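To: structure subgroup
Subject: Chain for Friday's discussion

All,

I'm putting the inputs and outputs inline so they're searchable in the archive.
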Amino acid sequence: MKWKANDAFANRADVLRVILNFQEYAIVLTLGSELRKRLNEKLLRFREIDAWNEHVYHYLGE
């Protein structure tokens, strides 16, 4: 982003050092997969417990 701002918008735009905490991830399934509904339900339930944050930190870091 910093490079693009300097390249395309020199002296007109700057990228601030802001750390955003919001993150999203995706799991790819084939079109019309029977697993979609069950997987979504399990993920929604799992995100409600503390183990979700522990797994995210374990695999992706801070």
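Points worth raising on Friday:
Helices lie at 2-8, 35-47, 51-60.
The first helix runs from residue 2 to 8.

D.
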